[in-house]
Amino acid sequence: MSKEIIINATPKETRVAIVDKGKLVEFYIENPDNERTVGDIFLGRIDAFRSGLRAAFVDIGEDQHGFLHFSGLTDNLEQQLALVEDPKPQVSKIMEVWASKKAKTPPQSGPPRRRWGDSNLLKSKQKILVTITKEPYHSKSPRLSTDISLAGRFLVLIPLADYSAVSRRIENRKERQRLRSIMKKIRPSGFGLIARTVAEGKDEEALELDLQLLIDRWGKVEKKLQGSPNPPIKLYEDVNLASSIIRDLFSDDFSRILVDNHRMYRAIRGYILAVAPHMIKAVKQHKGRKSVFAAAGVEDQINEVFDTQVSLPSGGSLIIEATEAMHVIDVNSGRTRSKNDPEEFALQVNLEAVEVIARQIRLRDLSGLIVIDFIDLRNEKNRAKVDQALTQELSTDRSQAENLPMSELGIVQIARERQRVSVTSTHRLAQKSRINRTPPPDPEAIEKRIEKWLKKHDGGSLHLQLHPFTAAWVNRGTWRRSKKAQWQRQYKHRITVVEAEQLRPDEFRFLDATSEHDITDLSPRMVRIKAQSKQPSPKKPKQANKTVDRRKSRRNNNGQTSRKRQSPRRQKAATDA
Question: What local confidence, expressed as pLDDT, does residue 434 receive?
């Protein structure tokens, strides 16, 4: 069994697993609250400058303004600004004007040219063309750049450029020269081209077909820019998560793409038929009763992604936790100890942990600053062995990662490129306790149970008690797009989410908002009866005339009314009188 791409697609969520020889190596989740935005192109408006940060905030029409650092400005910034101001924008026309202007300008002497575009060209409330390079992370804004490009299967198209390049991962010298000659031949005027890694071995016809698709996409962008529209506008939306993985990773090394959604299966099959018809047999649709991940044998491995504790083959373990600033990994040797040579035993555990750590970093898509606390090593040569092993494992990662040498205290720091929010950060409810370990809760299962309860009951005000992790998952996203808001609109309930640490992450309790009585296990009829019994009884109207209590009043033989029954002696005295 070689490499496989397993896709589980539902209307609410898409999950993609990459499997290598039966082992899960990468796992991604995309939902409406966590959609892929890297590569999207916007016509934005500069809202404010921050001279201390050497950056500008750009309104792109999203929940947060984008963060444009001046290092993200490209050399063709002047041409881009002219393009967005032109009522009939065309790359070829802008590049002709720029070429003639450049020919008239004498060459400059003196210090070398700056590494990025000139920030002096920018001003407040100005229209600017930007693309998202990093998605928003916690309270941080999305990172923007003016490096506009469209990625295809084999090529990357760069408007307002005049160069060709080949991916550094293609190491064969003859192949690099062959690709350069093809791109020099097919490159259109005013555009730059980059040959991607998967372009290795492809003929000119395949590259030219991919280029034509990219040019058509850019034509749609130019059409949206016609007439000088007012920003913010989304000009181009890159492909979704599943399509981007297939576009970027799928090659002859993969033996199967297994999809459980018929519509997505047909879309992927059509794409593979267009770009790689010889691999069309690798696209399969899952139709069994089991889940697609269970059929592929990776369901248990996916559940482990959300575990804070990972076991090592020797009996030790890793503890992986996330903070606001970094991810922390602690290496524990467990109960196993070596009485003969503790240093050699610690080295073996650390080397064993290096392989597992590198896999977990890719699997969970951990990024930013990662701090690893290895078992202490006194010998400097042993620390160097761990550093070398970690560097070698990280070199196979698609995301750029750099690690510093191990300190005397056994601490290693890793800086890994961040583009998306990690899977564990997306579903923080799946974090477990070190002491009371329970199976990781399934977000879809909790959602289905809550919705099943809401469907049975009429509208009203409710308090929903949840574990803090589950409450964070229910409230995540904007107030209109959160799960709580969706339930309120769909089931006509006014819901207030209350955190309850005594509950497990997979538990929930519904309380009546007025009386705070637990109504989770009550039937809809009993809930209505309790609600009616709590309503205040109507007040009796006041009577105008005095009424006589029939139960107490009695009449004697003389027609007199008495509220008490008289004794026989008093009755006789009344008769004699």
Answer: 31
Whole-number pLDDT of residue 532: 66
Residues 476-524 pLDDT 10s: 776 677 888 888 888 888 888 888 878 877 788 888 888 788 888 877 7
Spatial CA neighbour of 132 closest among 224, 242, 31, 41:
41
pLDDT at site 433? 29
Beta-strand (E) ranges in 454-571? Answer: 461-466, 494-499, 508-512, 554-555, 561-562
Contacts of 219-226 spanning 24+ positions with Cβ under 8 A: 221/41, 222/89, 222/90, 222/91, 224/43, 225/43, 225/83, 225/84, 225/86, 225/89, 226/87, 226/88, 226/89
The CA-CA-CA angle for residues 370, 372, 376, to 5°, reads: 160
Give the tens place of pLDDT for each residue, 276-326. Answer: 888 899 999 998 888 888 888 888 888 888 788 888 888 888 999 888 778
Residues 72, 57: Cα–Cα separation, whole Å: 12
Residue 116, pLDDT > 50, answer: yes
Is residue 17 within 8 A of residue 24, CB to CB? The reply is yes
pLDDT tens string 446-475: 888 888 888 888 777 888 888 887 888 788
In terms of residues, how long is the chain?
577
Average model confidence (pLDDT) across the chain: 81
| Residues 49-69, mean pLDDT to the nearest whole number | 88
Q: What is the C-alpha separation between 419 and 365, in angstroms, rounded?
A: 9
Pairing of strands 155-159, 150-151: antiparallel
Say how far apart CA 113 and CA 452 lie, in whole Å: 64
The pLDDT tens digits for 219-228 are 999 999 998 8
What amino acid is encoded at 262 in this protein? H
DSSP H/E element including 155? strand 155-159
Give the span between the Cα atoms of 69 and 143, in whole angstroms.
8
Residue 211 and residue 195 in contact, taking contact as beta carbons nearer than 8 Å: no
Q: Enumerate residues 6+ apart whose C-beta is below 8 A from 524.
A: 456, 457, 458
Kind and range of the H or E run holding 347: helix 342-364
Tokens coding 240:
């979704």
- Closest by Cα among 162, 159, 139 to 84: 159
Give the model's pLDDT for residue 242.
82
Q: What is the C-alpha to C-alpha distance for residues 148 and 214, in angstroms, rounded to an integer? A: 13
* Helix residue spans in 365-442 (DSSP H): 380-394, 423-426
**Whole-angstrom distance, CA of residue 272 vs CA of residue 247:** 9
Strand partners, 69: 55
Using the Cα atoms of residue 401, residue 402, residue 405 and residue 406 in order, give the sign of their dihedral. Answer: negative
